[in-house]
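Deliverable D4.2, example record:
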Amino acid sequence: MPKRSTLTLITLGLGAALAYRFRRRLIGWPLKLPPAQYDVGIQRDARIPTADGVALMADHYYPKARGSFPTILIRSPYGKGLEAGPVGFLYAFLLERFAERGYHVIAQGTRGRFNSGGEFNPLFDEAADGQATLEWIARQPWFDGSVGMWGPSYLGYAQWAIATNPRSRPYLKAIVPILTGSQFVTAMYPDGSFGLDLALHWIQLVRMIGQPGQPTHWMLPQEEDRRLAPFFNHLPLMDIDEQLFGKQVPFIREGLQHPRADDPHWQPIDHSREVGDVAAAAHFISGWYDWALRELLADYAALQAAGRAPHLTIGPWYHADIHWVPEALRLGLNWFDVQLKGRRELLREKPVRIYVMGADEWRDIDAWPPPAREVRYYLHHDRRLSIEAPEAQSTPDRYRYDPADPTPSVGGALINLPNGAALDNRALEARPDVLTYTTPPLENDVEVIGGARLELYARSGLEHTDFFGRVCDVQPDGRSINICDGLLRVEPANLAKDTEPSQGLGIVRLEIKLWPTAHRFLRGHCIRLQVSSGAHPRWARNLGTGEPIGTATRMLVADQTIYHDNEHPSALVLPVTTPLPSLA
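Output generated by the structure prediction step:
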């Protein structure tokens, strides 16, 4: 083979370098990222010791350049590279984008996952292991004194587990919690129920990937749903793990044995009480259809109340929606450039940015929630929803809820939504166990931003029951698209009755808090309210007996009555930011 000239080699080398730089720029361009600055090196499987001697494995991405760079720490139970399949590939892609823009990145597998040592006990080890990892980073010769943390869901919880520890303050300067909360207990037990869909999907995920010594098996979302569907109606819930996985899963069983969010069992993994003391600058990112939205907004409010200056971005996303990923990457890089590199000129003018659905536009505001007027849309006997006061006398509406045929979840804040979160609800609304109340076509746009609620006067034939409310946007073509919803589990111990006792519940005034939202109902559209007694398996069905949720098998049918007269003015209360609608 003939020797190549020095000029040829130089030309080839320059061409390769230019091609690499062009590839880096090409990758960043569709993601709207700032230009890449550095080549990236990777050290695989660095061993990080924990307090009890277990070694957790981490990959270190770093800029191939002299100089001092801040560090981004990402702790994940879902893998840190190609060993984790599609999700690992995505994380590796994102990590390199941070490193080529001037950051060390430590991507660590949590305890008992993939090739990290120890046993995986979800949530309970993240505080101690996270602090040990932070202290390991502080001892490295390349450490410049500043750490940021980034990541969604469990990765976001891992941020709070470190940030709420006062020992993290010298190093941890910025966090970006995405679709997450400082505690998951209220998401696991939403509104006194049990998040069956969330629990089974998540446990199935961690059983299929990351088990040491077992091959990773990824399933498409549709395949996941098909596999789980036969088990959602299984009773008792306590042995659903053996039915589904062929063995007991301690995390599920412990959860069902401690079914209240205030149970002392959950205190070690509830960091919400310390959120106000966190010194790290926080930028929250979530979606209107995310199951952890309420937990994230509670953390945002805690920092606000403590005098901090958190940023908040909420898009039209759900938990498994891929569309939030580029935005979270851009916002994370920007936040770290501001907080860890001192580039204050990159800080946006207003701290809160929300996507207003219906209007299909981003809106910058000073704080969440923005100022709004509470407008009551009253329920009427002819299934009308109106700001007109209800009639003096009105025949109540009735339906029957049968837990053997539970009212299903359709879209909304579920963990796995292959068809999207905002769906046509007409098939659901045709069920006999669902009532609907609808405005006439709107004469003007009605914009709703904030937390809605349903004030419901109801009676039930059972003392233990659920009531569910959902707001939909009815399109001119008849499609009824879900916007926000909420559920209340009724128990005698925490309910004050009116003076009309009967077998079961007397007439009671219930207040159901609906998911926060930002939506513009356009002129010609209708606002619709659904009332029912469940959304299974997002909230595990109420069997009506009051027996422990984990062991109950007996089911009772609930006969439900909804009142809407001037003594019992049931109403949907919306935070309206547009001019007050006229009577219609």
